[in-house]
Write a structure and sequence with these properties.
single chain; 175 residues; 77% helix; 0% strand; globular
Length: 175
C-alpha cells in the first residue's frame, strides 16, 4: 500500500471518494506546497541579502529553482500515470508553460513594486514586506498555480496517449 493509499484509507468515507476522484489534484497540491517553501526560502534569502535592490530578479530565480524541483516531482509522482510523450518533448513543454508561469507569478510583485510603488521610500519597510509577500507569494502563486494545473493537464501530461510515430527502437522490438 502506498503512502497516499494509507492516507486515503484514514479519510472518513463521505470524503474518501471525493479525495480518490481528485487524487491527482491533491498530489499536485502537495508538490505545490513543497515548492512553495523552496520558492519562499530562496526568494527571501536572495531578497534580504545579495539581491536586496532587485526583488523581482530574486522572485524569478526562486521560481526557476522551484520549477525544476516541481517538474521532477510532478513527472514522477503527480502525473506519473499520464503522458506518454518522449521526455525531451514533455520537458520542453513543461518548461515553456512554466516560463509563462514565471511571468504570471512575478507580475503581481512587479505591479506592487513599480506601479503601486509599495516600496521604500514611498512606504514603510513593514508595508513593503507585507505587499511583497501578498503580491509575490500569495496572488502570484494562485494565478500561476491555476494556469499551470490547467496547462499541464491539457498539454504536458494529457490523459490520452498522444499520436506519435514509433521510434526506431519501437519498430525493432515489434519485429
Amino acid at each position: 500500500m502506498s503512502a497516499v493509499d494509507s492516507v486515503l484509507a484514514r479519510i472518513p468515507q463521505p470524503y474518501r471518494s471525493l479525495a480518490i476522484q481528485h487524487r491527482e489534484l491533491l498530489k499536485f497540491g502537495v508538490v505545490g506546497a513543497i515548492t512553495f517553501f523552496i520558492d519562499t526560502g530562496i526568494f527571501y534569502a536572495l531578497k534580504l541579502t545579495i539581491l536586496s535592490p532587485k526583488p523581482v530578479t530574486s522572485k524569478v530565480i526562486a521560481v526557476l529553482v522551484a520549477t525544476i524541483v516541481s517538474y521532477v516531482l510532478n513527472r514522477e509522482w503527480s502525473f506519473r500515470t499520464r503522458g506518454g510523450r518522449r521526455r525531451r518533448y514533455e520537458a520542453t513543454l513543461y518548461f515553456v508553460i512554466s516560463g509563462i508561469g514565471v511571468g504570471l507569478y512575478s507580475a503581481p510583485l512587479w505591479v506592487s513594486r513599480y506601479v503601486l510603488h509599495l516600496q521604500t521610500p514611498f512606504t514603510s519597510r513593514l508595508v513593503e514586506e507585507i505587499a511583497d509577500f501578498t503580491a509575490g507569494q500569495i496572488i502570484g502563486l494562485l494565478v500561476g498555480m491555476a494556469f499551470r494545473w490547467w496547462a499541464f493537464r491539457k498539454w504536458v501530461f494529457p490523459a490520452e496517449q498522444p499520436d506519435r510515430r514509433p521510434s526506431a527502437r519501437d519498430r525493432i522490438s515489434a519485429r
